[in-house]
Write a structure and sequence with these properties.
homodimer, about 325 residues, alpha+beta, Phosphorylase Kinase, domain 1, five-stranded antiparallel sheet, three-stranded antiparallel sheet, 9 helices, globular
Chain lengths: ~325, ~325
């Protein structure tokens, strides 16, 4: 949880004067989202989310994200829609930061997903992959396999402070993945961060996807691997194969996984584990003084990585033969 | 920035089943409020605030707060209204904490109040004092003068870590205030925490008051003293007498201050400064490891206290003769 930047009502009023949203009725900082500052905004025209982008690097990528959210919505994927100002741009500036208003998406994220949530997630992810196929902009996955070497160099020197032997494990795993990574599988737009807090439900119905700020071009099955990690493990660290089966069946019902994708799944899942293990380790070792963010536990993903190292076939994740 | 207890959607759904609010459409943690956890709740019936009370001590006082908010609203003071469950109670329990739903109040709190905001605040506070006169429950001010001795004993031993000489100043000031405190002035219901973030505006119009969890019975003019501190000093520490004049004129236009109240104002303002100085000093010295709260600067209130020690007449705050 984090609100990094407060906004005065005067700055906000003059920012909103560029939009056709009517008068400001309330705004409140939201205690969700780690990367950016989010406010719930109520104006005479309705409810919106205002996001301030805290990391300078994001600014260049914003046209990709804006275009993608519009492209997906036009193809039936429910996601927040960028609101354009009177100049026709969705991108503005507020207290010195890139800022965007998007429509408010109803729904609740599920703290403890059950089997039917996993089915719905699998199906929605496959639809996203299909809808993304015709999107023309490209964005390299900055946190994909080509970025892990840099992350490993940042994480390794002090990784043993997190867990003894972690530094060596990271470097070994990186070498193994680089030598065996399947670079010619079906690729396209992936969300790359479909953790439960980015998937909204209304009752049992999946109502939409949010937070496209890691979306990029990468292997489609890598997105599945991320979700197996994020949705199908129990709190005690055990893999729930019923949830895995549901997720994969939900996906397969929309877009059939190719055999070579299925074969690669254990390796992709190791990669997806390493990626989160690396960024969480770095965050863990670099909590800034006075931070309002409590870092997430890297060891959760060390356990997941170790689990995947023992898997040799996607049927162990529940994939139907 | 809030203490923060997350609530699962299942717990929330079963909590909401006790209310006639329809289905849950969204809920988001709000990054405001220091004492409690607040969520913005959207159900089929509208928008609400759900509060979890984090400190056990509050539970006994909740009937007072609930009754007061209802009493004030019935007398024209706009404030959040407790929502009753199907058993007719506004007080429930969620994840082991006392919990309450109140109506959502539109408005924006003013980061940098101007003179007209101060007039509106003075007037609203006087109306609150008048409306509270007929409220029948009583609540002692736990952080009033009779509580300062305990606070001073908590703060003093390490107060010099905050500012050299602070411990001695606290004890001297406490003695002076205890020997001179005017105990027979007009008393009644006060809000006791009318800082700008608890006063909402829509445009230039004051739209409501929130956060009654310090409300209590105490000297009415002490509420004014709290507000002179919270609304009429500039960021550089200087007192803006134009704002003071506006606040006092706004108040006097509704409820005329008695001469003995005006005479006591410098002393009450010293007390109001000491109270905040004490709690901020204690918070500053006791930030728990991993806290998500950044403590507020105690020295701001040390400067205000020193300012008031040099004042001998309420006209120096802008009170009209």
């Amino acid at each position: 949880m984090a609100v990094y930047t407060d906004v005065g009502e005067e700055e906000l009023a003059s920012f909103l004067a560029n939009y056709d949203l009517g008068g400001l009725m309330s705004f409140k900082g939201i205690a969700e989202g780690v990367e950016n500052t989010n406010f719930l905004l109520h104006t005479e025209r309705g409810y919106f989310i205002l996001t301030l982008y805290e990391k300078r690097v994001a600014a260049d990528d914003l046209p990709f994200f804006i275009g993608l959210m519009e492209h997906l919505a036009a193809r039936g994927i429910t996601c927040p829609q960028p609101v354009k100002n009177r100049k026709g741009s969705a991108l503005g500036e507020l207290v010195g930061r890139p800022a965007m208003i998007v429509t408010f998406l109803e729904g609740v994220w599920i703290r403890r997903p059950n089997v039917s949530h996993c089915t719905a997630l699998g199906s929605a992810m496959a639809k996203l992959h299909q809808a993304g196929a015709s999107f023309e902009l490209h964005r390299k996955n900055a946190l994909g396999i080509d970025g892990w070497k840099n992350l490993a160099h940042l994480a390794a020197p002090r990784a043993d402070e997190v867990s003894l032997g972690l530094a060596q494990l990271i470097l070994e795993e990186l070498t193994h993945l680089e030598n065996n990574w399947p670079r010619s599988l079906p690729a396209g737009i992936i969300h790359a961060d479909l953790f439960p807090d980015n998937v909204f439900f209304l009752g049992d119905r999946l109502s939409g996807l949010i937070d496209f700020y890691f979306a990029c071009n990468d292997l489609l099955a890598y997105d599945i691997a991320i979700c197996l990690n994020a949705w199908c493990f129990e709190i005690d660290g055990s893999f729930n194969v019923t949830k895995g089966r549901a997720l994969l069946a939900g996906y397969n019902g929309v877009r059939k996984l190719e055999k070579r994708e299925a074969d690669a799944l254990p390796l992709l899942a190791r990669g997806a584990s390493l990626r989160i293990l690396l960024t969480r380790t770095i965050d863990w070792l670099n909590v800034p003084p006075g931070a309002l963010v409590r870092p997430k536990d890297p060891l959760e993903y060390l356990k997941k990585l170790r689990f995947h190292r023992r898997i040799d076939h996607a049927r162990d994740y529940g994939l139907a033969a």
